[in-house]
Design brief:
mainly alpha; two-stranded parallel sheet; 4 helices; 2 strands; elongated
Length: about 70
């Protein structure tokens, strides 16, 4: 709540941007819900830390398991 004004302004900018929008993190998603901007976001993820790791190019066990499935089926 101490940062609600700034958070709402950033959420507004993201929600009304022209690009594909991705928001990651439970607190960020909650702020978007509270501000009513969820319908304007293309992709929401509650995995903020995992989203950052993925963007950094780090391996995520859940994604790696899905990548390995076709290899095991063949």
């Amino acid at each position: 709540d101490a940062f609600a004004k700034g958070t709402t302004q950033v959420a507004h900018a993201v929600a009304h941007g022209t690009g594909f929008t991705v928001v990651g993190g439970g607190d960020s998603v909650a702020a978007l819900r509270k501000a009513g901007f969820v319908p304007f976001i293309d992709h929401l993820s509650t995995g903020g830390g995992a989203s950052l790791q993925y963007i950094e190019g780090r391996e995520l066990p859940g994604i790696e398991a899905l990548v390995e499935i076709p290899k095991r089926v063949e």
